[in-house]
Amino acid sequence: MTDAVFQGIRTSANKIYVVEVLDADRVESDDTGGSVIVVPTGSSQEYEIETDLLRPFLAGDEIKRWRGDWGGLHVIHPYYAEETEEGELEAGLYSQNYLDENLSKTWNFFLAHKEALEARESGRKEGEDDWYGYIYPKNLGKFEAPKIIQGHITTDATFMVDESGTWYFTTAYGVLLSPDYRDLTEEMACQLNSKAVDFYFKHITTVKMGGYYEYRSQYVERLPCITEDRADRFAEMRENAETIVDIIDLDSKTGRFPEAYLGKFDGELEYVDYEWQTRRYPVDATIAEQENGEFAVEAGRSDSITDAAMYADDLGNRKRRAEYVHSAVDGRNVKQGEATTIPIPRREEGVEKLLSQLETDQKKGKGDRYRDSRKGDRLSSI
Fold first, then answer.
1. pLDDT of 296 higher than 50
2. How many other CB atoms sit within 10 Å of the CB of residue 46?
3. In principle, which of 16, 79, 106, 370 could form an S-S bond with 49, CB 3.0–4.6 Å?
């Protein structure tokens, strides 16, 4: 019932193609016509590029059961995939002329990294026109279809649902069901994550050291699944899957404050910049009022965040700005020397609006988890 069990993308230059977006949350494949500020993961240089080629990206350790633990990264994907009039999929690399004429900011980004991209080891010859593409472009038309994404080497079944075709990934596999079964993507994820199917899987796969198993396509393709709803259970499976992913999505959103709340915010922003002095996994931050009446966000003895963007004329507003910064860093993992940039509204009503949205979602998340815990083992047993 699978059209393909396929590998993730291989750019061979993730430090260039994989970027952090500073002034937006998740850029979807249909978000076109705008521009954002990005920083490649391999540098600290900021670039403005169009949103058209940005895709949400999951690193290998972010593939989780039911939903990914997304860290906010995107990949620049200079490829198109479209259906022809005959119904066949056509995919390929955008031409240099197309990028220069239609996405000039993104093209300038590639030109700024031309030397490094041309230096990659490959079968290409120097001076060839496709130097800005991936070394191994594969499965170009499969990522934006409803699919299941699976962890590669894990202790237990780790299949996440991508019901809308949002996620690009690496060091993982995608499971794309054939067209006749694609509307059962969520039901199939329930079966793949079930204890019964995982018990069978662990008897046919390769066992690794430390209690890990290899979830490769050659084994996943052999898994049996029920495709006819003879026991009238598919509706319950879909409801349970949707409940689980809704709770995880809300937790993920609150954990990515403020970026996750900036998508519909149209006010002016400024930025709090800070370089961490100590590795913190996670940041355990507090708010401290200083002698001059300003507030600092502190973590341990060595990290204290203060910035002109945290200042306000009113004491209460200064404290709310500190609470905003606290919410942005508390619980995150940071490395020593890592630079953090926190977008914060210039106007006080913007700070209050985003904090209120965060607090509402946090209360809702706690309520949802409490209600579902009262259902007993129904969710945890899936």
1. yes
2. 12
3. 106
